[in-house]
Amino acid sequence: MSLALFLLSLSGAPLKADLNWTTKGAAIGLEIATNPGGFLYDIHQLNETVVPTRPGRRATFSVQMLPTFLPFTMAGFSGRFNITKEHGGWPQIEVFGGMDRMLALDYLSGRKVLGLINGADIEDNSVTGLIKGRHYGISTAWSAHPKARVQLAYEISALEVGANFSEPFAIAGSSISSIAVNIEEQFILVGAELFRGDRHYLFTQMGYGLQSSKIMARIVFSGRAWDWGFTVFPEGALVIYPTLGFKFGL
Amino acid sequence: MNMNSSAFQVPGFKQGRFFVVLFLCLTWNSELGTRNLFAEVQTVMPYYKFTFSEGLSIPSKGDFFANHEVGSQVGSLWNITDKAHLFGLYDLTYEGPGLMRSEGRLFSERAIRHSFMTEPSYDFSLGTLRLKGFLIDEKRRSGTNEIWGQGLYDYSAVGGSIGFDRKFLGFTFFPSIRYTNMEFPNFTDLLREFQTSGQSSEIAAGGLMDQTALAYTLSVTKRPFNVAVSLTNQEYKNEKVVTSAGTYSDEPQVDSIAEIRGEWEGSLWRFSLVPAGAIRFKRSNQNYLYYESVGDTSPDFIAQNFNYNELNMGAKLFMRLTKTKAIFGAMDLTDRLYTSRPPRNSSGVYQYGEQQNTTWGSTGGGLQWKVTDYSTWNLAYYIITSASNMKYESFVPYNYTGHIFGLWFTVTP
């Protein structure tokens, strides 16, 4: 009988499915409101350096543009330095690290301080505090084939959030008056770099957080100067982020 | 409050095998093909595989959501001598929310699984001896509001297998035996908690699903055919069979699953067709007691509640457009009939005289293309349908349709 129901449903009659953006938006908003630190930590992790330094290079420096600096004003800078090149069965070993900071919060905090000094009334609805992060680790890259390298890496990624809102802001029926979170987590990263053409690579990576079992997946189309792709935090409030970053190597 | 004795529906780990979204399986087998990373014979060869899917699911019940699956495998093959090989592998898989579940699962359920596997093998003149040892740790949760590590169906497993690969008359025979010891540290049931309340019952009752499983499999391959027959026996260490009197007997729960599955892979010009099918029979001595409320003095007793017969059929058809692009269509259908379990109406009342029957599957297709020599991508659309005479859907949906749009890709299959 259920086979008949199945075939009936395939015929198109009951194929109703709605896109209710309002309830979905509220659900995502509530998720951010109840775990703002987790959401900000996702943004921080989008600033991390991901792709191993290209063979023949000594170091890589990178700046992430989307979706960190724009639109969240989370500005970051990171670098990778080769300790050893791949040789005689040894992998390429490099250390990497970076820092990031939310500039909007610094700007607003500065305005408030300025307002207090000058006696001007510009601190209303303002926010003080700081959001800053750092990450560092060690990464190895092994040639599995002339056109493919496998990456194994270990990383520590930390975020400090201390923000106070002079007037609580409402989000999805909840209100937030302050956020104070320190998150530090160790990650195991497994990835692969596939050669596509002259200085163009496809890089895929999966990360696992040892403390909270956080999962992330990254897909990066790496070019001469620009890296673009997307990052997925399956358990995050906003699951998928398109990414764009600039890099240069030495 | 519903008081369900015995297991909550069907044991979790078996569903874990079906838990992988079926359409993923349909698309992972890439028609365009990607070259294996074992391209050059070396003493030590690294191995890597990455699978990823990201989609939008729009079910007829509940909100739309993003579905995602991510998996990474990293390992190495060590050719110790010409005949002796050692393969080691670590696998990390995340199974996110998804529509295409086995029967009786929530869309929002998710799992993280770590697996370690080592496979020594030795080539004799008669064939290849394959040994395997594995460790699995799986955590589950029904949504982001739960903490990893407290899932009812969390389990760890340790086991090993031995098999012998032998070519004979053009056929490849591979008989094997696998032993698994599984522990479910959080698994309990409400009846036991209720009856032993006040004695930190939840903790005391954990591990109810702990079991050993012994599986015998014979696989026979002759291209383009592959047929496998397997029999799995699961013996529960702590779970006892529940009786109609509302008590547990001394008889431990014993399950068995017999399965026959087959696949055929044929190509003609630009087309290739891969039909596959499986028949499964599950038999369990476990019964089921359904309490409508805490004070229910006459609970429903369903003898042999978990026995079912299941038929699975599927096919995928590829048409190669260019060297790097193909279009494909795929269909998959599973029908499960519980031989002794009656369905329930929308109020939860058992409809005696009928058998619970659910049919679910997917139909769809899309575009497949290669981004590099080692990476195949799929952009696809699927209709998901589940239809059942089980109408009690306060917790788990049984009758729904859904649409999935998504991107699936794999690196070095």
Assign the CATH class of chain B.
Mainly Beta
Poorly predicted ranges of chain B: 1-31, 34-40, 199-203
Estimate percent helicity of chain A: 10-25%
- SS summary, helix count of chain A: 4
Bin the helical content of chain B.
under 10%
What are the key terms here?
heterodimer, A: 250 residues, alpha+beta, 10-stranded antiparallel beta barrel, 10 strands, 20% helix, B: 413 residues, 16-stranded antiparallel beta barrel, 3-stranded antiparallel β-sheet, 4 helices, disordered N terminus
Give a verbal description of the structure.
- The complex is a heterodimer of chains A (250) and B (413).
- Chain A has 250 residues and is of the alpha+beta class.
- Chain A has 4 helices and 10 strands, in the order αααβββαβββββββ.
- Chain A has one domain (20-249).
- Chain A has a 10-stranded antiparallel beta barrel.
- The longest helix of chain A has 16 residues, at 103-118.
- The termini of chain A are far apart.
- The mean pLDDT of chain A is 86.
- Chain B has 4 helices and 20 strands.
Please outline what is shown here.
The complex is a heterodimer of chains A (250) and B (413). Chain A is α+β, with helices and mostly antiparallel strands and 250 residues long.
What secondary-structure arrangement, pairings included, does this model have?
The complex is a heterodimer of chains A (250) and B (413).
Chain A lengths: L1 H9 L10 H14 L1 H10 L13 E8 L7 E11 L7 E11 H16 L8 E19 L2 E24 L2 E24 L2 E10 L5 E8 L3 E7 L7 E10 L1
Antiparallel strand pairs in A: 1-2, 1-10, 2-3, 3-4, 4-5, 5-6, 6-7, 7-8, 8-9, 9-10
Chain B lengths: L2 E2 L7 H8 L2 H7 L15 E16 L5 E15 L4 E12 L14 E14 L4 E14 L13 E14 L2 E13 L6 H6 L5 H4 L6 E12 L2 E18 L5 E17 L1 E3 L2 E14 L3 E4 L8 E3 L5 E13 L4 E14 L18 E16 L2 E14 L11 E12 L2
Antiparallel strand pairs in B: 1-14, 2-3, 2-20, 3-4, 4-5, 5-6, 6-7, 7-8, 8-9, 9-10, 10-11, 11-13, 12-13, 13-16, 14-15, 16-17, 17-18, 18-19, 19-20
